[in-house]
Amino acid sequence: MRIANLAGRLTLLTQTGAVDVEKASEGRFGSDPTAVYGQWEDFTAWAAAADLPAGTAYDDTDLQTVVPEPAQIFAIGLNYREHAIESGLDFPVEPPVFTKFRTSLAGPVGDLELPTDTVDWESELVVVIGRTARNVAVDDAWDYVAGLTVGQDFSERTRQLVAPAPQFSLGKSFPGFSPVGPALVTLDEFDDPADLEITATIDGDVVQHSRTSGLIFSIPVLIERLSAVLPLLPGDLIFTGTPSGVGGGMTPPRFLRAGEEIVTSIEGIGELRQRCVPGQPYTTATA
Protein backbone atom coordinates (compact mmCIF):
# COMPACT_ATOMS: atom_id res chain seq x y z
CA MET A 1 0.00 0.00 0.00
CA ARG A 2 1.21 3.49 -0.90
CA ILE A 3 -0.13 6.36 1.21
CA ALA A 4 0.38 10.00 0.29
CA ASN A 5 -0.53 13.55 1.14
CA LEU A 6 -2.06 14.99 -2.02
CA ALA A 7 -2.76 18.72 -1.73
CA GLY A 8 -3.22 18.33 2.02
CA ARG A 9 -5.53 15.30 1.85
CA LEU A 10 -4.90 11.70 2.87
CA THR A 11 -4.66 9.68 -0.33
CA LEU A 12 -4.00 6.13 -1.48
CA LEU A 13 -1.90 5.84 -4.62
CA THR A 14 -3.09 2.85 -6.65
CA GLN A 15 -2.32 1.47 -10.08
CA THR A 16 -5.20 3.53 -11.45
CA GLY A 17 -4.24 6.79 -9.74
CA ALA A 18 -5.04 8.73 -6.56
CA VAL A 19 -7.93 7.72 -4.29
CA ASP A 20 -9.16 10.22 -1.68
CA VAL A 21 -9.47 8.29 1.60
CA GLU A 22 -12.19 10.39 3.21
CA LYS A 23 -14.42 10.03 0.18
CA ALA A 24 -13.67 6.36 -0.43
CA SER A 25 -14.32 5.46 3.23
CA GLU A 26 -17.49 7.59 3.31
CA GLY A 27 -16.10 9.61 6.20
CA ARG A 28 -14.89 6.71 8.32
CA PHE A 29 -11.41 8.18 8.03
CA GLY A 30 -10.79 11.88 7.70
CA SER A 31 -8.66 13.81 5.26
CA ASP A 32 -5.85 14.64 7.73
CA PRO A 33 -2.64 12.90 6.55
CA THR A 34 -1.22 12.89 10.11
CA ALA A 35 -4.26 11.78 12.11
CA VAL A 36 -4.51 8.42 10.31
CA TYR A 37 -1.46 7.07 12.20
CA GLY A 38 -3.50 7.22 15.40
CA GLN A 39 -5.96 4.82 13.70
CA TRP A 40 -3.36 2.78 11.89
CA GLU A 41 -4.59 -0.76 12.53
CA ASP A 42 -8.21 0.11 11.69
CA PHE A 43 -7.14 2.06 8.63
CA THR A 44 -4.90 -0.64 7.15
CA ALA A 45 -7.57 -3.29 7.77
CA TRP A 46 -10.13 -1.16 5.94
CA ALA A 47 -7.77 -0.34 3.06
CA ALA A 48 -6.84 -3.99 2.56
CA ALA A 49 -10.49 -5.06 2.27
CA ALA A 50 -12.04 -2.00 0.62
CA ASP A 51 -13.46 -2.05 -2.87
CA LEU A 52 -11.70 1.15 -3.90
CA PRO A 53 -12.96 3.32 -6.73
CA ALA A 54 -10.78 3.93 -9.76
CA GLY A 55 -8.08 6.46 -9.02
CA THR A 56 -7.66 9.81 -10.73
CA ALA A 57 -4.61 11.31 -12.38
CA TYR A 58 -2.49 13.65 -10.26
CA ASP A 59 0.53 15.88 -10.60
CA ASP A 60 3.46 14.91 -8.38
CA THR A 61 4.08 18.59 -7.66
CA ASP A 62 0.83 18.46 -5.64
CA LEU A 63 2.24 15.82 -3.31
CA GLN A 64 3.16 17.19 0.10
CA THR A 65 5.17 15.74 2.97
CA VAL A 66 3.76 12.35 3.96
CA VAL A 67 3.31 13.25 7.66
CA PRO A 68 2.96 17.04 7.88
CA GLU A 69 2.58 17.27 11.68
CA PRO A 70 4.61 14.54 13.41
CA ALA A 71 4.85 14.87 17.17
CA GLN A 72 8.56 14.03 17.03
CA ILE A 73 11.29 13.87 14.40
CA PHE A 74 14.39 11.85 15.21
CA ALA A 75 17.52 11.94 13.07
CA ILE A 76 20.48 9.60 13.42
CA GLY A 77 24.06 10.62 12.70
CA LEU A 78 27.01 8.51 11.51
CA ASN A 79 24.89 5.43 10.82
CA TYR A 80 26.89 4.12 7.84
CA ARG A 81 30.53 3.17 8.36
CA GLU A 82 31.74 4.86 5.17
CA HIS A 83 30.05 8.12 6.19
CA ALA A 84 31.73 8.03 9.61
CA ILE A 85 35.07 7.51 7.86
CA GLU A 86 34.56 10.40 5.43
CA SER A 87 33.57 12.58 8.42
CA GLY A 88 36.82 11.69 10.19
CA LEU A 89 35.00 10.26 13.21
CA ASP A 90 35.01 6.95 15.06
CA PHE A 91 32.14 4.52 14.63
CA PRO A 92 29.50 5.32 17.28
CA VAL A 93 28.76 2.86 20.08
CA GLU A 94 25.28 4.36 20.55
CA PRO A 95 23.13 6.05 17.87
CA PRO A 96 23.89 9.79 17.80
CA VAL A 97 20.45 11.46 17.88
CA PHE A 98 19.30 14.99 17.04
CA THR A 99 16.06 16.47 15.75
CA LYS A 100 14.92 18.33 12.67
CA PHE A 101 12.25 20.88 13.51
CA ARG A 102 8.83 20.41 11.97
CA THR A 103 8.82 23.65 10.01
CA SER A 104 11.67 22.28 7.89
CA LEU A 105 9.40 19.57 6.39
CA ALA A 106 8.61 19.83 2.68
CA GLY A 107 7.02 17.83 -0.08
CA PRO A 108 8.89 15.53 -2.44
CA VAL A 109 9.11 17.96 -5.37
CA GLY A 110 9.92 21.65 -5.27
CA ASP A 111 12.49 24.35 -4.80
CA LEU A 112 15.22 24.22 -2.16
CA GLU A 113 16.22 27.71 -1.04
CA LEU A 114 19.93 27.96 -0.26
CA PRO A 115 20.57 30.40 2.62
CA THR A 116 24.38 30.10 2.26
CA ASP A 117 26.99 28.56 -0.02
CA THR A 118 27.64 25.63 2.38
CA VAL A 119 24.41 23.61 2.05
CA ASP A 120 25.07 19.86 1.88
CA TRP A 121 22.92 16.82 1.10
CA GLU A 122 22.25 13.63 3.09
CA SER A 123 19.99 11.02 1.48
CA GLU A 124 18.07 8.95 4.02
CA LEU A 125 15.56 6.18 4.50
CA VAL A 126 12.81 7.50 6.80
CA VAL A 127 10.75 5.31 9.12
CA VAL A 128 7.18 6.28 10.07
CA ILE A 129 5.92 4.92 13.39
CA GLY A 130 2.48 3.29 13.31
CA ARG A 131 1.66 2.81 17.00
CA THR A 132 2.99 3.94 20.36
CA ALA A 133 6.30 2.24 21.12
CA ARG A 134 7.81 2.11 24.61
CA ASN A 135 10.56 -0.27 25.72
CA VAL A 136 10.24 -2.27 22.52
CA ALA A 137 12.49 -5.29 22.01
CA VAL A 138 14.48 -5.59 18.79
CA ASP A 139 12.60 -8.71 17.71
CA ASP A 140 9.26 -6.87 17.95
CA ALA A 141 10.32 -3.53 16.49
CA TRP A 142 9.03 -3.95 12.92
CA ASP A 143 5.51 -4.39 14.34
CA TYR A 144 5.58 -0.70 15.30
CA VAL A 145 6.50 0.58 11.83
CA ALA A 146 3.72 1.96 9.61
CA GLY A 147 6.00 2.12 6.60
CA LEU A 148 9.03 3.62 4.93
CA THR A 149 9.62 6.69 2.82
CA VAL A 150 12.42 8.79 1.31
CA GLY A 151 13.96 11.79 3.05
CA GLN A 152 16.70 14.36 2.61
CA ASP A 153 18.56 15.75 5.61
CA PHE A 154 19.80 18.95 3.98
CA SER A 155 22.44 20.53 6.18
CA GLU A 156 23.85 24.05 6.38
CA ARG A 157 27.32 23.00 7.46
CA THR A 158 28.57 26.34 8.76
CA ARG A 159 25.68 26.68 11.23
CA GLN A 160 25.70 22.99 12.05
CA LEU A 161 29.37 22.91 12.99
CA VAL A 162 29.72 26.33 14.63
CA ALA A 163 32.21 26.38 17.52
CA PRO A 164 32.35 25.81 20.42
CA ALA A 165 28.97 24.02 20.57
CA PRO A 166 27.73 22.55 17.26
CA GLN A 167 24.09 23.23 16.36
CA PHE A 168 23.01 20.12 14.47
CA SER A 169 19.26 20.66 14.85
CA LEU A 170 19.30 24.31 13.77
CA GLY A 171 21.76 23.74 10.94
CA LYS A 172 19.48 21.04 9.54
CA SER A 173 16.15 22.83 9.99
CA PHE A 174 16.05 25.75 7.59
CA PRO A 175 12.76 25.87 5.64
CA GLY A 176 12.60 23.06 3.10
CA PHE A 177 15.56 21.18 4.59
CA SER A 178 13.50 18.03 5.33
CA PRO A 179 11.62 16.91 2.21
CA VAL A 180 9.85 13.59 2.73
CA GLY A 181 7.88 11.44 0.27
CA PRO A 182 6.63 10.81 -2.31
CA ALA A 183 4.60 8.21 -0.40
CA LEU A 184 4.70 6.02 2.65
CA VAL A 185 5.09 2.41 1.52
CA THR A 186 3.91 -0.33 3.87
CA LEU A 187 6.28 -3.14 4.73
CA ASP A 188 4.37 -5.83 2.82
CA GLU A 189 5.39 -4.11 -0.43
CA PHE A 190 9.08 -4.97 0.04
CA ASP A 191 10.92 -8.25 -0.41
CA ASP A 192 13.26 -7.09 2.36
CA PRO A 193 12.57 -3.69 3.96
CA ALA A 194 16.03 -3.78 5.59
CA ASP A 195 17.93 -3.91 2.28
CA LEU A 196 17.01 -1.18 -0.20
CA GLU A 197 19.12 0.64 -2.77
CA ILE A 198 19.55 4.35 -1.99
CA THR A 199 20.90 6.88 -4.50
CA ALA A 200 21.36 10.62 -4.89
CA THR A 201 22.28 12.47 -8.07
CA ILE A 202 23.05 16.11 -8.80
CA ASP A 203 22.24 17.10 -12.37
CA GLY A 204 22.38 13.40 -13.25
CA ASP A 205 25.77 12.71 -11.64
CA VAL A 206 25.68 10.07 -8.88
CA VAL A 207 26.98 11.43 -5.57
CA GLN A 208 25.59 8.80 -3.17
CA HIS A 209 24.90 5.13 -3.82
CA SER A 210 24.53 2.45 -1.18
CA ARG A 211 22.12 -0.03 0.39
CA THR A 212 20.25 0.43 3.65
CA SER A 213 21.54 -2.95 4.82
CA GLY A 214 24.74 -1.00 5.54
CA LEU A 215 23.23 0.77 8.55
CA ILE A 216 25.36 0.44 11.68
CA PHE A 217 22.23 0.58 13.83
CA SER A 218 19.38 -1.19 12.05
CA ILE A 219 15.80 0.06 12.14
CA PRO A 220 14.83 -2.44 14.90
CA VAL A 221 17.85 -1.38 16.98
CA LEU A 222 16.99 2.31 16.55
CA ILE A 223 13.42 1.66 17.71
CA GLU A 224 14.68 -0.34 20.68
CA ARG A 225 17.19 2.33 21.75
CA LEU A 226 14.87 5.30 21.25
CA SER A 227 11.84 3.66 22.88
CA ALA A 228 13.94 2.78 25.92
CA VAL A 229 14.25 6.50 26.62
CA LEU A 230 10.87 7.91 25.57
CA PRO A 231 7.68 6.86 23.84
CA LEU A 232 7.64 6.86 20.05
CA LEU A 233 4.25 8.13 18.91
CA PRO A 234 2.10 7.32 15.87
CA GLY A 235 3.29 9.40 12.94
CA ASP A 236 6.77 10.06 14.37
CA LEU A 237 9.57 10.15 11.82
CA ILE A 238 13.02 8.58 12.14
CA PHE A 239 15.64 9.73 9.62
CA THR A 240 17.95 6.71 9.78
CA GLY A 241 21.23 8.26 8.60
CA THR A 242 23.07 8.85 5.34
CA PRO A 243 25.63 6.82 3.42
CA SER A 244 28.95 8.21 2.22
CA GLY A 245 29.14 10.74 -0.59
CA VAL A 246 28.12 13.96 1.12
CA GLY A 247 29.68 17.16 -0.21
CA GLY A 248 31.47 18.01 3.02
CA GLY A 249 33.40 14.75 2.80
CA MET A 250 34.79 15.51 -0.65
CA THR A 251 38.23 16.96 -1.36
CA PRO A 252 37.78 19.85 -1.78
CA PRO A 253 34.30 20.12 -0.20
CA ARG A 254 31.49 20.52 -2.72
CA PHE A 255 28.15 22.10 -1.80
CA LEU A 256 24.86 22.75 -3.56
CA ARG A 257 24.59 25.63 -6.03
CA ALA A 258 21.60 27.52 -7.39
CA GLY A 259 20.30 25.95 -10.61
CA GLU A 260 21.27 22.39 -9.68
CA GLU A 261 18.70 19.62 -9.27
CA ILE A 262 19.23 16.96 -6.64
CA VAL A 263 17.26 13.72 -6.98
CA THR A 264 17.07 11.26 -4.08
CA SER A 265 15.66 7.80 -4.70
CA ILE A 266 15.10 4.61 -2.74
CA GLU A 267 14.24 1.27 -4.31
CA GLY A 268 10.54 0.45 -4.10
CA ILE A 269 9.52 3.85 -2.73
CA GLY A 270 10.24 6.57 -5.28
CA GLU A 271 12.16 9.79 -5.48
CA LEU A 272 12.49 13.35 -4.25
CA ARG A 273 13.41 16.16 -6.64
CA GLN A 274 14.65 19.53 -5.42
CA ARG A 275 15.72 22.41 -7.65
CA CYS A 276 18.21 24.65 -5.83
CA VAL A 277 17.39 28.36 -5.85
CA PRO A 278 18.89 31.37 -4.07
CA GLY A 279 17.43 31.87 -0.59
CA GLN A 280 17.30 34.67 1.89
CA PRO A 281 20.91 35.16 3.03
CA TYR A 282 21.64 33.87 6.51
CA THR A 283 24.24 35.55 8.67
CA THR A 284 25.24 34.97 12.28
CA ALA A 285 25.21 37.75 14.83
CA THR A 286 28.51 39.47 15.49
CA ALA A 287 29.71 40.71 18.87
Notable traits:
287 residues; Fumarylacetoacetate hydrolase, domain 2; five-stranded mixed sheet; 13% helix; globular; Fumarylacetoacetate hydrolase family protein; metal-binding; hydrolase activity; Fumarylacetoacetase_C_sf
Give the SSE layout:
Blueprint (H helix, E strand, L loop, with lengths): L1 E5 L2 E6 L2 E4 H4 L15 H10 L13 E2 L8 E4 L4 H6 L10 E2 L6 E2 L2 E6 L4 E2 L2 E7 L15 E8 L2 E2 H4 L7 H4 L6 E8 L11 E6 L2 E7 L7 H9 L9 E3 L21 E6 L3 E9 L9
Parallel strand pairs: 5-16, 7-13, 8-18
Antiparallel strand pairs: 1-2, 1-4, 1-13, 2-3, 5-6, 9-12, 10-11, 10-16, 11-13, 14-15, 14-17, 17-18
Structure overview:
The strands form three sheets. Strands 1, 2, 3, 4, 5, 6, 7, 10, 11, 13 and 16 form an eleven-stranded mixed beta sheet that branches. Strands 8-18-17-14-15 form a five-stranded mixed beta sheet, with no helix packed on it. The model has no long low-confidence stretch (mean pLDDT 95). It has two domains: 62 residues, no CATH class; 214 residues, Alpha-Beta Complex (Fumarylacetoacetate hydrolase, domain 2). Strand 2 and strand 3 form a beta hairpin. The radius of gyration is 19 Å and the shape is globular. The protein starts with a strand and ends in a 9-residue tail after the last strand. With 287 residues, the protein is of the alpha+beta class. Helices cover 13% and strands 31% of the residues. The longest helix has 10 residues.
